[in-house]
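Structure request: Large ribosomal subunit protein bL35, Zymomonas mobilis subsp. mobilis.
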Amino acid sequence: MPKLKTKSGVKKRFKFTANGKVKHGVAGKRHRLISHNAKYIRQHRRTDVVSSTENRTIKAWAPYGLN
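Returned structure:
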């Protein structure tokens, strides 16, 4: 059986934690930040963890993990 390929979009956008959760960057931080308040900018500063339902899908798209 041939090797499975990892989706290239997953390689660029996600990282796996040590416990197997999936991290992603938060959207809405590229431009036009002057129109958002300080709370929005502060809360979107860090990465976020993907929900458990999407977690299964992303792991299927990266069958051998992300190194």
